[in-house]
Amino acid sequence: MKKSIDLKLIFIVFSVFNMILINHIEAQKNDPNQGLRAHWLRGTWGINWKPVNLYNGGHEGLSIEPFLNQISHIKTIDYIQVHLGESSIKSSVHMGPHSLLESFWEGDTDANGDPINLVVPRASYGEDPFLEIVKAIRAAGLKVMVYVNSSNMLSREGPGGSNPDYIPNITERWKEWCDTNAEAQAFIASQPYHTGVWDETSKTYINSETEFPERKYMFCYAEFVLKEYAIRYGDLLDAWCFDSGSWMGMNGDSQTNGIYEDQMIFNAFKAACHAGNPDAALSFQNSPERDTEELNPFSEAVHADDFMFGHPYNGGRDGGSHTIGTPSLYSRNYAHIEKMKETNGYAHRGSDPQTWTWDDNVVAHYDPPMSTTSWNGGNTPALTDEEFNLWNLEAVQNGGAISWGLPLVKKSGTNEQLVGTDWALAQLNGMDAHLMELEAPGAPNWSRQETVLSEAKIGEVYHHVLEEGKDFWDPENIGAISLSLSGDNVPTWITLEQTEPGIWTLSGTSTDTKATTYVFDIVAQDTDGSNTRTVSLEVANDTKEEEMSVVIKAVANTNYGVDQTAIMYSDVLTALDGKATFKISVNVTPQIGKAISSGVSGGLTTTQSWGLSGDEREGSKENMFYGEKVDWVTISDIQIIEFNANGGTLQESDFENITFKSLMIVNGQTLGKDAIAFTINEETIELGNLDSNPFSIELQDKNQTSFSIGIGNSVDQSSNKWSVEEIILSIDLSEMLSVEKVEKESVVLWPNPTSGIVHFDEINPQFIQVYDFNGRLLKSEVSSANYLDVSEFNNGVYIFKFRLNNGEVIHKKVIKKN
Question: What separation in angstroms does the CA of 25 have from each of 260, 275, 756?
């Protein structure tokens, strides 16, 4: 009797869970941003740069710079498609380091001692080649489209097949990890669609492991590989192209029926990419349309598509042939461009095989090779120059996009060989000139997707040149173009002037007191109209001393008590007036049932390093974050306490904008297995594994006064152990520079920054004192001279304190820089 009750209870619980899951899925069906994430792609073209054979260390030292230099003169290009993963049988090869994927290598070598089964750059190489490539692309004013093959770590030969001899065992090792790792197994069991497919009749997921044994590995790739890459590169990536979408179909998803619940592998890949950048646009290659080709050459969209992959017919070969096929390959492939013209660049609007409305904003994108043979090689152009110009002009003028596979001098080898062939570059040059004149006639045009301004530095002269014919141009090539600044966020210290014909110069000296980002518009105007380019100007702070970094530590060897908030304090601090003293406190709150506990726990920890206890964990672990993801704390409530003005006029209210700067983590037990996660604004971000011990988590850019940290995803949760040594705060000192609140401009100092001598007006101060930004008195002089020598000081930010004969006290900031 009891057994039947238990089974009934299990059935009820499962049914409720399944109903909750279905309701959750229903809520996700209609994505209001589907397609809109690809809006930037409308009316653009780019280049598919595709080096190959990067396995077994071939990625290490790879650079895109020679290629970017080769095309630096091309103005109408908008983005580069770059390969994070290789294609076809080499799909397990990835260009970015990844500790899990490297762990499958096991140090294997062939008979010559060369690596085999190494599918990523080694961590020991010390550089992420893919990150450097992405940063270089963005520095060139271009957006980044990322290629990955959907077959990922699985053998392209299918069940029972084998990978190439240079990566013979990678699929088996990947599957073994998924089948034996506790975290992976828990993940697979967490959702019924990880092993089951959608049954439209019962509205449930039916276990289908026998029919689709590799389905679970597709989800594991999204969770444990793709997501980590997406988080690492974040908003540096603007779009993702997933080739071989048929692998989703081969593993139980539907590529064509438009049912959300039947496309959960697609949606898992989407969720993984959006963990790094929710605005990234996605596309899946589901082959060109076959059955209803006359209505639409593009395949049906899936719910994860923001733009179409746009794979050409005949595997991309002979794409411009007027004689092969009936209708010809030229006609079948040109139909993609004609569809863009018909639908204003949206692949599934208007006359379409399907009546779905959720796909109406999906952007039409076409991805052909330039040659007759392959995406990264070939000696014969697929299109004549006239056809090439026509296709590109019609695509961009009608809101579509084209990514051209560029024939390279060599598909692999040294960086200098990974550049376009002469014939391909000549065709691109001709097309660029064609678009410059005809793509958007009338008002001035701006080059590329972005105008990248050079970085400004606090207190230094800024100079950036904008050149007509390079940064902007007149399509008609007549008349004069003028530039002006617009917007509410234009720096007050900057000017834009024409310094010679066709040359405009942004100049000024930054008066900012801290690192700042300005976003504003530059308007290009001529007699035909105006065109606005939004730009971003970064103002950097090279003088780290400007930030009264404050260290907060736990009380030594202390257990704060189960379910008790631990209040941690700084040492006694002295303000810049040399009088006021104070402390700063923060609250550290454990989750229910835990306690904050400090003490030595091995490695580099001290008596003030802290972790969690209160759950009967063994003594050596009680001062650590350990093992499971339930180990979390919230750090919040920055407070000024024990404030005493000590006769000065500084008030507690003068302390503004105190924020968290960083955390110092110590006692990482196992390199590559000690993982940290971070929660802010209800979003959890996996920060990955500790790369060193100690390890600093930088928080200042997040400008937050409350956040949570805890155990993250690790390849081995049982080895996941680390402690917090200290919390570091940053204080905005801009309201703490003057005691009597007199006008700061009543004393003028020059030069500032200085390399040694600082001059000032003949004000005859009673004395001059120099403090560092921690409030320490460094120099005091009684002098009637109108200068002060600080050449003996290190580079940094200092406070000059003047007491005038009328009793006024004035503080001025001086930057010392050789």
Answer: 8, 18, 66
